Amino acid sequence: MAHYSVSKAVVTGGARGLGRAIGERLAREGLSVALLDVNEVGVKETAAEIAEATSAHVIGLGCDVTDRPGLQEVFRRAAEELGGLDTLVGNAGITRDRMFHKLSDDDWDQVIAVNLTGVFDCLRSAAPWLRAEGPGRVVLISSVVAKTGNLGQMNYIAAKAGVVGLVRSAAVELARFDTTVNGVRPGFIETAMTAAMPEEARDALMTDNLLKRAGRPEDIAGAVAYLCSDDASFVTGQVLDVNGGSAL
Ligand code: NDP
Question: Residue limits of the Ketoreductase domain (predicted)?
Answer without folding.
Answer: 7-185
